[in-house]
Amino acid sequence: MALILEISLSFLVIGILILWFRQKNKNKDFYKNIPGPPPLPIFGNILEIGSTITFIDVMLNFAKKYGGILLLHGGPIRKTLLVSDYKFLECVLSSTKILNKTEDYNFFRPWLGTGLLTSDGPKWKKHRRILTPAFHFQILEQFIDVFESGGNTLIQKLEKEVGKKSVDIYPFVTLCTLDIICETAMGTKINAQENSDSEYVRSVKDMCRIIIERSFSFLQLFDLTYPLTKNYYVEKKALKVLHQHTNSVITKRRSELKNPATKKTQDDNFGPKTKKAFLDLILDAKVDGRSLTQEEIREEVDTFMFEGHDTTASAISFAIFCLANHPEVQAKVLEEQRQLFGSNKNPSPTYADLQSMKYLEQVIKETLRLYPSVPFYGRQTNEAVEFNGSIIPEGVTITIFAYAIHRDPKYFEDPEQFNPSRFEKIDGKLPYCFIPFSAGPRNCIGQKFAMLEMKSTLSKIVRKFELMPSTPQHKLQLAAEAVLKSANGVKISLKLRD
């Protein structure tokens, strides 16, 4: 018996070593001529990366030193190309073949399952097709009053901060975007701004942090060793909160829609007197002639909650910071608002009004250039693809470094300068150098929704407050979590306008 056990263990060890050797040497010829920081044994480049706070600066220095296509080692086996080269990005993002996400997105799956963000292949294509109508302008137009309601509560909260030398506006904004996304996605009000100690918000933050930390922690990379870490137990607790909330809303909405009185109020033409939440549209959707399962619906709703909450809060907060520190830009935004609304100090902007805010849109784009809500995102080849006369083989992991190309002087003159007017000249000319919403077939399905929400919120804030630098003047400490944050807050000061 002991001999059989010994032989079995020997075969297991040999099998693991063979698998390790094959993985380590997979696509070896392709990688051998790609520059990058030399890896340490076992750890690769993980120890150089440090924390989420140092991550962006380290990656940016790598890109400056080794170029727009470089090789990183994530431990003894994992390899990834860090890419900020325009032609390579154009090849990847425009491709209908390079659609799969990287292994890092597996860390999202306990939370988001295989929703639109994380799914591959046929499922992604089918779900993208059925979800696209949810972002038709007639759907988006009906949510303007939700943006207004959430923004009005935000203004009330910020009024209490007027006159303080330093106010961290991010916590206020993230609760506002959570209120908005819950009502638009799920058709339910959670009043997060009135309950600032929201367990749901804390759980979202925990998951965003954990996903990035797992990508660059040797102990957390593997399912076998991950339960040995504190994050494993924090994640379990957070997932319980997140999934229970979404499932309860779905169950409640299913019940309401079965009620004849509720059905009678639904208007398939999406008229101005009725609203259909994102959830309602998914409940009505069919895939291959069948309705989506409870799990499929939860995955898509959770995905929309994640992508439409924290990303938008990040962008709005950084835009407020930029306006506070660039009074000449803020003055032009205010002038545009006054041209639109005249002496009306409390207008209710329409869809057409928001579309007319062209300079504010440039401000948002310039903010997203400097502070893209998602500074990195990934693709993985599932077949060989030609690029520039050579072949990218199957199984290559590609990390798209949006933050780096956004600050490349080849595409943006004086790239560190906040200059919204640059988008008057460059907008649309080089589509793969400005990619805060990705680009190509897997671009962000909700980017028009996000732009409307950001315009609505920022226009309301600028009309109500003069935004000024904090005292002492705040310096952002960027942290690359799943969404770009400032580890030390986003601090300004506020003064009521006359």
Search tags:
single chain; alpha+beta; Cytochrome p450; 3-stranded antiparallel sheet; globular
Alpha-beta classification = alpha+beta
Uncertain segments:
15-22, 267-273
Strand content: 5-15%
Helix content: 40-55%
Fourth CATH level, the homologous superfamily: Cytochrome P450
Radius of gyration: 24 Å
CATH C-level name: Mainly Alpha
- Give the second-level CATH assignment, the architecture: Orthogonal Bundle
CATH topology term: Cytochrome p450
Spatial separation of the terminal alpha carbons: 88 Å
State the shape.
globular
**Mean of all residue-level pLDDT scores:** 88
Strand order in the sheet with the most strands? 1-2-9-6
Count of individual domains: 1
Number of helices: 22
Major sheet characteristics? 4 strands, mixed
Would you mind describing this structure in some detail?
With 498 residues, the protein is an alpha+beta fold. The chain has one domain (58-496): Cytochrome p450 (Orthogonal Bundle). The protein contains 22 helices and 13 strands. It has helices spanning 2-24, 28-31, 46-49, 52-66, 86-94, 109-112, 121-131, 137-141, 144-159, 170-186, 199-215, 218-221, 230-258, 260-265, 278-284, 294-324, 327-341, 351-356, 358-370, 402-406, 423-426, 447-464; strands at 69-73, 79-83, 167-168, 286-287, 290-291, 376-380, 385-387, 390-392, 397-401, 465-469, 478-480, 484-486, 491-496. The chain has a four-stranded mixed sheet, sandwiched between helices. It has a three-stranded antiparallel sheet with strand order 3-13-10. A hairpin with a 5-residue loop joins strand 1 and strand 2 (79-83). Helix 9 packs antiparallel against helix 10. The radius of gyration is 24 Å and the shape is globular.
